[in-house]
From TrEMBL:
Membrane topology: Single-pass membrane protein
Keywords on record: Membrane, Transmembrane, Transmembrane helix
Span of domain Translocation and assembly module TamB C-terminal: 815-1146
Subcellular localization, as worded in the UniProt entry: Membrane
GO cellular component: plasma membrane; TAM protein secretion complex
Native organism taxonomy: Bacteria, Pseudomonadati, Pseudomonadota, Gammaproteobacteria, Oceanospirillales
Record flagged with keyword Transmembrane helix: yes
Record's protein name: Translocation and assembly module TamB C-terminal domain-containing protein
Any single biological process term in GO: protein secretion
Record organism: Alcanivorax profundi
Length: 1148
């Protein structure tokens, strides 16, 4: 019986345990059971707890969605979560979670009533938990408190808490994107202790002043929570070490911290560098009465400033006992109080300061005195009169500033006056509650204010309107106003209510003589603005020489400073390019984030120039442009008046991507293109069948292809290179010209040019220093030189490139029976290009005309670079036969003093060439002309320095010859032209003679002096007077044996010879021919020189005969004297006849 009862009891107990296990499994291991447990727990939890979705079970893992708990002012929301429980740990008193993953956890509390007293804070004796909690992995998206993100991106590992706590690793982002990495441990039972380390990193916003990108540090906290040992190391942006204790006394912390830093440069974008000296900061006491004591300094270049500060925290504020900045004898001191609740202050400032410590561009010495006292409560100002006075020198200019600020009937009034050198400014009015400021500017020397400014500026400016939306009205006038390399001749600006408000506003700006680096860019610039910020019109016009530009903009500017509108009625007028007009409106958007322009086209007849594009704040651009049917004739000003371009140009361009790495494509081609020469006997126009360029920009590489085809030949080129000057270059050029007639377009000296030009070249190196590998060949070349009557044939020229960059030059040509050769090399880099060439040859026919046939044997060397070339060597003229065309007898030469004002000067833009060439005349150099028939010889050296006239040294010798003068053929016994400098004025040493065998007499002429001022003298053997010598030269017989016509010839020859001053000679000739006067001069009507013969026929009648020395015009004049001042004169010549009555009066 007992056994059966015991069996029954055991079976019942086992069944009960099985039922309990089943129930426990149903409650913990099924989703339905979990939800039932959750519903039961809701009844025992204070407040309201709801759940939108439950998935999984507690024995495995649970996924939650929409968990919401509310209890009074506390509101907690969890959008989603997932947890994995380790059940076996429950029996050991641990809530062990394999992982806990939370989405967004939102905690909000309702605002409580404000309290006048700060709540007291009492530290707990124990924080131990009733059971242990262990979380192997913790992840949370974010935790927000009252819609403020407290932490985010939480990642934790091995988090344990019971009677002690341990954090193996916790990483999270908190306020201001501060990244925290926490590890530590401690006791949660009394006394509570902490031993933790925190590494933190705070990203800093971009700044033009601060170069540091982040702040970071390490914090170590150790000890009981009522007496914590603190060690902190600030690593960036500066280095600061802090250590001390934080004790809990009187329900608030007491600090005893020492902060120390070594000397270090501050991370500021400034030059010279600003250095923080070694320093300390002590913070001691309770928070309510915290004492501050700091010592440090700043150093910039050679300036060092010491900084000392003492102060303390007082009720409702801060008491600044002393703040002193000291640099040598310079001091700046401040003291006072700053209180809050409501805001109140009482601050004094005084000192002597050199502003150079603030900026190296501000040297000087200033005395500063100021004070301010007031309060601000409930938007109401109470400000006692506050003063600021600054006196001294700044940039060696006197500076004086006086300002007074005070409140009056809730208005903040300002009165200020400043004088800096010759510049003055006055301000008066109210700052608050709105703008009512009037100012007057008289800035006579802007360069005293800043060295980059120049000129003067004066005017009046008035500010009106609300504090956050001021309006400016007034006028400004400037003379020679400039900034850096830009300057304006005059500037006038008139404006009314300019600002960002919605009020109507106007602006008129006029400027002229806009220059950059003393080069005029615009003659005039006019700008007119009218309308409101939301809708206004802007007109801009500018002129420069023959160019006029005008455009109109209609648009609006919103509160974010984004301008959006249209560009319309634009036009460009140019004297040579004609008028281009905009026919369709183009939308334009301008803002700090992006700029965009809708298709904008300027049209002329069937031609159009179009562009459109956008620019984003991330430096992303998109630009498209096109050229439609552009007449090539518009480019004629670039080619000059000697050429005419015909045809049209079509082109498109597209660029997209970042500014640093854009992608783009360009395509351009011509249609019906031709080029012709504007000259008589010009070759026919050159027709260009195909001329196209295609370029593609990708990955900072530019690939280009060029194709050219014409009746003369074709060319193809490919090129690949980067955008930097040192980027590598790859490419090739293929050229085949079957005819060289194109050369005739660029020179009138060559005709019937034939030959072929072929190039097969590969390019390498870089843009800065390209290398050419391959050959450029000119074969079977020939041409006529009409001006010289010669031909050049069998021309061969080969340019051979090499990998090292040098180009070898070899060539030859046939000129007559002679052969010319060219050899040398060209070094394209480094720039400027350098070369070394040699030209040689024998008996080259360089002239073959009726008036000249010349052979030349050169041996010349050309060396140097494009900035300094030197031509040296020798030129031998072995043969020459020169017969110049003589001028007619009545031709008049132009005086060397005459200047043709309409004639353009020589072009001085030629290469800087220096010469040192020796010219030698051979034994067969003949000259016949101008009465001279001679064989010439001699040697000349031609020297010339760049930008200086040439110099000739040496002599030309007349080896033998004859000279025809005075109607006779004279033999030249000696003849030399001596050059000692200027080539146009050699010295003369020429002796011409005539022998009279019948009388054993030799007469002649000796020429000396210079070519421009010759000196002539007659000689004879045996000696005789000048008239007899001239008579023998002209007639071969003495003067007594000649006729009257011979005497006339002799007199005229003597006049030309310059011997008319000899009275004895003229008297003898006059006696011979029966006249009273012989002279050389001009009458009062003309300037032509004449030989004049006069005869007094009676007391009142005088006869004159004159023959021109240069024009051979004969004139007979008969003068009859009526009174002492009245004459009757009759003239008759081969050109005209006249009868005049002449009245003469001598003025004294």
């Amino acid at each position: 019986m007992i056994a059966r009862s015991l069996q029954f009891l055991l079976r019942s107990l086992l069944l009960l345990l099985l039922v309990l296990a089943t129930i426990l499994w149903l409650l913990l291991g099924t989703s339905t059971g979990n939800q039932w447990l959750f519903e039961q727990a809701r009844q025992w939890i204070p407040g309201e707890l709801t759940l939108e979705h439950w998935e999984g079970n507690l024995l495995d893992s649970v996924a939650l969605e929409g968990l919401h708990y509310r209890n009074g002012t506390l509101n907690i929301q969890l959008d989603q979560g997932r947890v994995a429980l380790i059940p076996r740990s429950l029996t050991q008193g641990w809530l062990d979670l394999e992982y806990l993953r939370l989405g967004s956890l939102l905690i909000s509390t309702e605002a409580s009533e404000p309290s006048d007293t700060a709540p007291s804070i009492t530290l707990p004796d124990s924080l131990s938990l009733p059971f242990g909690v262990r979380i192997e992995t913790l992840d949370a998206k974010e935790i927000r408190l009252n819609n403020t993100r407290i932490v985010g991106d939480v990642h934790g590992r091995r988090l344990v808490a019971w009677r002690r706590f341990q954090i193996a690793h916790l990483n999270t982002t908190t306020v201001a994107d501060t990244r925290l990495t926490v590890s530590g441990q401690g006791s949660l039972t009394g006394p509570i202790t902490v031993d933790a380390n925190v590494d933190w990193t705070l990203p800093l916003p971009p700044s033009e002043t601060l170069t540091a990108q982040q702040a970071s540090g390490q914090l170590q906290v150790k000890g009981p929570i009522d007496t914590l040992q603190i060690n902190h190391q600030l690593q960036h942006p500066v280095t600061v070490k802090s250590e001390g204790t934080i004790e809990w006394q009187q329900d608030q912390p007491r600090l005893a911290l020492l902060h120390q830093w070594p000397a270090q440069p501050l991370p500021l974008n400034q030059t010279p560098v600003l250095t923080l000296t070694e320093g300390t900061l002590y913070t001691r006491g309770l928070l309510d009465t915290l004492q501050l004591d700091a010592k440090t300094g700043l150093i910039r270049d050679k300036l060092a400033v010491a900084i000392n500060m003492t102060g303390s925290r007082i009720d409702d504020g801060l008491s600044l006992e002393n703040l002193t900045l000291t640099q040598g004898k310079q001091t700046l001191q401040a003291n006072g109080q700053l209180l809050y609740g409501p805001l109140r202050w009482d601050v004094n400032l005084q000192g002597n300061l050199n502003p150079e410590i603030l900026s190296p561009e501000l040297p000087g010495q200033l005395t500063i005195n100021g004070n301010s006292k007031g309060r601000y409560d409930n938007n109401e100002w109470v400000l006692s009169p506050s003063h600021l006075k600054v006196n001294g020198q700044l940039r060696r200019q006197p500076l004086s500033v006086q300002a007074e600020l005070y409140s009056q009937r809730q208005r903040l009034a300002l009165t200020a006056a400043a004088r800096f050198g010759d510049n003055q400014a006055h301000l008066k009015g109210n700052l608050l509650p709105d703008w009512q400021i009037d100012s007057t500017l008289k800035l006579q020397r802007l360069n005293q204010i800043h060295p980059d400014l120049d000129g003067n500026l004066s005017g009046q400016i008035a500010l009106r309107g609300e504090l956050n939306s001021p309006r400016a009205s007034g006028q400004l006038n400037g003379q020679q106003t400039g900034w850096q390399q830009w300057s304006l001749g005059t500037l006038t600006a008139r404006f009314q209510d300019l600002g960002l408000g919605s009020q109507p506003q106007q602006l008129t700006l006029n400027a002229n003589q806009i220059q950059q680096d003393h080069q005029q860019r615009l003659e005039t610039l006019d700008l007119t603005l009218a309308g409101t910020r939301q809708q206004h019109q802007l007109t801009v016009s500018a002129t420069q020489q023959s160019l006029t530009l005008e455009t109109h903009l209609n648009g609006a500017l919103d509160t974010t400073l984004r301008w959006q509108g249209d560009v319309t009625q634009s036009r460009i007028v140019h004297e040579a390019l004609g008028q281009w007009q905009q026919q369709q409106t183009s939308a334009l958007t301008l803002s700090a984030e992006n700029q965009s322009l809708a298709p904008f086209c300027l049209r002329q007849d069937d031609s159009a120039l179009c562009v459109q594009g956008t620019y984003q704040a991330d430096n992303h651009i998109q630009v498209q442009g096109s050229v439609q049917s552009l007449p090539l004739s518009l480019l004629s000003p670039l080619t000059g008046p000697d050429f005419t371009l015909e045809g049209r140009l079509e082109a498109t361009v597209a660029i997209e991507g970042s500014i640093d790495n854009p992608q783009g494509e360009l395509h351009a081609q011509t249609q019906g293109a031709s080029i012709s020469v504007n000259a008589q006997d010009a070759p026919p126009p050159l027709d260009i069948h195909t001329l196209s360029v295609h370029s593609q920009l990708k990955n900072r590489q530019l690939d280009s292809q060029l194709q050219l085809a014409s009746s003369l030949g074709e060319a193809r080129a490919t090129l690949r290179h980067g955008l930097q000057a040192d980027s590598p270059v790859q490419g090739d050029i293929n050229l085949m010209l079957h005819s060289l007639g194109i050369i005739e377009l660029f020179t009138a000296d060559l005709r019937d040019i034939e030959g072929t030009l072929r190039a097969d070249v590969e390019l390498a190196g870089s843009l800065r220093a390209p290398h050419i590998d391959g050959q450029i060949q000119l074969l079977n070349g020939q041409a006529l030189v009409p001006a010289l009557g010669t031909a050049i044939s069998d021309v061969t020229l080969v340019l051979s490139g090499s990998p090292d960059g040098d180009i070898a030059v070899n060539g030859q040509a046939i000129m007559g029976d002679g052969k010319a050769t060219l050899s040398g090399s060209i070094q394209p880099h480094p720039w400027p290009l350098s070369l070394s060439l040699t030209v040689s040859g024998q008996n080259l026919l360089v002239a073959n005309r009726p008036d000249a046939r010349v052979l030349l044997s050169p041996d010349l060397q050309l060396q140097g670079n494009l900035e300094a070339l030197a031509l040296t060597g020798s030129l031998i003229i072995p043969e020459a036969d020169i017969h110049p065309v003589e001028l007619p007898e009545n031709a008049i030469t132009v005086s060397r003093d005459q200047v043709l004002v309409h004639q353009q000067g020589e072009d001085n833009g030629s290469l800087p060439l220096s010469l040192n060439v020796t010219v030698t005349l051979g034994d067969q150099v003949y000259f016949k002309g101008f009465g001279l028939d001679a064989t010439l010889g001699g040697t000349l050296t031609i020297e010339q320095k760049p930008q200086r006239p040439p110099q000739l040294n040496g002599e030309l010798v007349v080896r033998e010859g004859r000279y025809r003068a005075y109607g006779q053929n004279l033999a030249i016994s000696d003849g030399r032209l001596i050059f000692q400098g200027a080539p146009d004025n050699p010295g003369l040493d020429i002796r011409a003679i005539r022998k009279v065998p019948s009388e054993a007499i030799t007469v002649g002429v000796q020429l000396g002096g210079t070519l421009q001022e010759p000196e002539a003298s007659l000689f004879s053997d045996p000696g005789m007077e000048q008239s007899q010598v001239m008579s023998y030269l002209l007639t071969g017989r003495p003067l007594e044996s000649g006729s009257n016509s011979d005497a006339n010839r002799i007199a005229q020859a003597l006049a030309l010879y310059g011997l008319e001053k000899g009275s004895g000679v003229t008297e003898k000739i006059g006696d011979k021919i029966g006249v009273d006067d012989i002279s050389v001069g001009s009458d009062w009507e003309t300037d032509d020189a004449s030989l004049m013969l006069g005869k007094q026929l009676s007391d009142r009648l005088y006869l004159t005969y004159a023959i021109g020395l240069f024009d051979a015009v004969s004139t007979v004049m008969l003068r009859y004297t009526l009174t002492r001042s009245l004459h009757l004169e009759a003239r008759s010549s081969t050109e005209a006849n006249s009868l005049d009555i002449i009245w003469e009066k001598e003025l004294r």
